[in-house]
Design goal:
Order of helices and strands: EEEHHEEEEHEHHHHEHHEEHHEHEHEE
Number of domains: 2
Helix content: 40-55%
Largest sheet: 6 strands, antiparallel
Distance between the termini: 24 Å
CATH architecture of the largest domain: Up-down Bundle
Strand order of the largest sheet: 2-1-4-5-6-7
CATH topology of the largest domain: Glutathione S-transferase Yfyf (Class Pi), Chain A, domain 2
Number of strands: 15
Number of helices: 13
């Protein structure tokens, strides 16, 4: 998969900007605040219709403007696609693929990408919702079923919350069956995903961190007592827990049971990463996690995802940087930002761009 070109209009700090990319490494250099991360964000938006930083559309519009537009050419499965994403305040986003109006969700089935950057520390140190969003983003690229069921599940939760606020105390909740049905599928997919990516993430982390251990464990809000998970068993357990918490949910007027309350636990050397991990350890763990996902996504999709890495060497000591380079592996198209010099291994056959004052200049 290759992003061949991009054109920005009124996006973040770019009034306008265009670039033609190499199918190998593309290095964005410039001072802090010049717009390097914004350009990575635009590329990710072009592929998946989502901000790498979770920003809403209105936040992406250049200050003083009332719209943004991202256009580009993306090659996937040997087909060239003209993609356009545009938003005008206060309207809705419009996505076009080959001049056809397309749902943002369809981009997940067509393109794939993995992005890593400084904000990934929040996967470990931030709220549980950040960890769930991390799961949802990457699982949705690997499993169309998961993506569709996740949407149905969130609709059921919203409808249940609205129903609970109407205080129908004598009626049984009509949404619990749906929450149990969709929730069981989501829990099964999450458990499988984490079990698949953990060995690769731990292996890379050990290499970079001189043998330190790194563990990932799934902590669903609905506990299944043994390892013999099946969708039917999970559905039954969810329904029972919903029954036991019916009065509590009515009192709080909020759906409290289901995978929208799940958690993921990360440990480094046996201690919780969020409370005991240093900045360097969490940065290393985040990069290891994202590269493991990259490899798994490549195997599932039978196509090499686009890899975007934002200042990945920042806050890593020299030893960790060298070991990370040694363990980096093979990539397809890479986009990498830096305020300093890049190791030669990543720039072979690549192209450099200078990002300065909201402009993109090939070097």
């Amino acid at each position: 998969m290759i992003v061949k070109s991009i054109k920005l209009t009124s996006f973040r700090n770019f009034e306008s900007g265009t670039a033609v990319f190499e199918p190998s490494a593309n290095i964005f250099q410039g001072k802090n605040g010049a717009g390097k991360s914004n350009l990575l964000e635009a590329i990710f938006m072009l592929l998946l219709g989502k901000s790498t930083r979770g920003a809403k559309d209105g936040m992406l519009v250049k200050e003083g403007g009332d719209f943004y537009r991202i256009e580009g050419e993306v090659e996937a499965e040997n087909d060239s696609n003209q993609v356009s994403i545009a938003y005008q305040i206060p309207g809705k986003r419009k996505v076009l693929v080959n001049k056809r109006l397309t749902k943002t969700s369809e981009l997940f089935g067509k393109f794939c990408a993995v992005s890593a950057g400084p904000s990934d520390i929040e996967i470990f140190a931030g709220s549980p919702s950040i960890r769930r969003n991390f799961l949802n983003l990457h699982l949705s690229q690997m499993s169309p079923r998961y993506f569709n069921v996740l949407g149905d599940y969130h609709k059921a939760v919203e409808q249940k919350n609205a129903w609970l606020k109407q205080s129908r105390m004598k009626q049984s909740n009509p949404y619990n069956e749906l929450i149990a049905k969709y929730g069981a599928i989501i829990m099964m997919e999450r458990k499988k995903f984490l079990n698949l990516i953990w060995p690769g993430a731990e292996n890379l982390y050990r290499k970079v961190s001189s043998g330190q251990s790194f563990m990932i464990s799934y902590s669903p809000s609905v506990v299944i007592e043994d390892d013999s998970w099946t969708e039917e068993k999970i559905r039954t357990v969810i329904l029972e827990k919903l029954r036991l918490n019916e009065n509590r949910e009515r009192l709080l007027q909020m759906a409290m049971i289901g995978p929208h309350r799940d958690e993921i636990e990360f440990t480094i050397e046996g201690y919780p990463a969020r409370s005991h991990g240093s900045q360097g350890e969490m940065r290393t763990a985040a990069i290891s996690l994202k590269l493991a996902i990259f490899e798994h996504l490549k195997n599932v999709r039978k196509e090499v995802p686009v890899l975007l890495m934002d200042e990945i060497f920042a806050e890593l000591d020299e030893t960790r940087r060298e070991r990370l380079m040694e363990a980096f592996g093979q990539f397809g198209q890479l986009f990498l930002t830096t305020a300093t010099e890049i190791p030669g291994l990543l720039t072979q056959g690549g192209k450099r761009f200078r990002i300065e004052d909201g402009s993109i200049r090939p070097q």
